[in-house]
Design goal:
Number of helices: 1
Low-confidence stretches: none
Radius of gyration: 13 Å
Largest sheet: 4 strands, antiparallel
Protein name: DUF397 domain-containing protein
Length: 73
């Protein structure tokens, strides 16, 4: 496994995250063929790097509701 350098990443939150009263959001950054993901409440904490294809699959699953928790209203 190789480590992706995310030090120059330009992180951003979803435009919909401003309605999140608990401020529990993730931030993403595009670096070459990689998408970086981090916790917005801990910007210096751990980061995950995935391929654009993997991130796209995650977004599609989320949009389809496949990742919704059964107890979420």
């Amino acid at each position: 496994m190789t480590e992706t350098d995310l030090s120059a990443a330009r992180w951003r939150k979803s435009s919909r995250s401003h309605n999140n009263s608990q401020q529990q959001c993730v931030e993403v950054a595009a670096i070459a063929h990689t998408i970086g993901i981090r916790d917005s409440t801990d910007p210096a904490g751990p980061r995950l790097a995935v391929s654009r294809a993997a991130f796209g699959g995650l977004v599609e699953q989320a949009k389809a509701g496949a990742l919704d928790h059964p107890d979420t209203p």
